[in-house]
Amino acid sequence: MTNFKPSNINKLFKQQDQLNLLIIINLLIYLCAQILIAIKWFSLRWVALPYDLVQLTSKWWAVITYGFFHQGFVALFFNMILLHYFGRILLDFETPKKFLCIYFSGILLGAVFFVTSYYLFPNFYVIKAPLLGASAGVMAVITYISLKLPHYQIKIRFLGYFKLMHLLIFLVLFNLLQIPLGNPGGYFAHLGGLTAGFVFFLINLKQKEKAVTKPSVFSITKPKKEKNIDAILDKISRSGYESLTDEEKEELFKHSK
Description:
mainly alpha; Rhomboid-like fold
């Protein structure tokens, strides 16, 4: 039997990329929280995001901590499955740093939307419950990659293939329609995450426009490899990932590495 060493855990964490590490942290926090709750050493109220500013001033850390704790395993499971699937697609086209910025911006803007909505639409709040869960961050990731690759197709079991843009439209409509039904806080937070993804997409679009129009005193031609990657990304945007040839998929895979 292999001896347990703390260094082994440290090595395991170093081997993970940002996406896997984020998922592992969420899982570990959930397990630890459940154990501490069972022995009555912890309460989710300490880390949940309150809906009014008076409580928030004395629990300022909740703006971030709410996104790392989940009320139940089902919410955790679906959030982590979606984060893994769409986060992996995003990391095929963007840097790990941008992925984390998009995710945590979704968490922060989700908190802003949640608290603000309580004051703007008090009549909707039949149930006044604090906020928990990573959904806003997940929504930001889904929104960004759906706008960047609107024709990218995913297969949903028993339903078939769907374009990312169609999924995004469904998520926006679903969350808007759920708001008047009695527990709007979580859905407003989702809309905050969706907005964060949209804002990041616009920023990315502006940066690309500046890169195209900015004159260079050295060279205005791109290397052949970069041109090929741009052509592949354009093809995915127009026709979806499945339209790529095996050679194009292999080249994209090599570039992502």
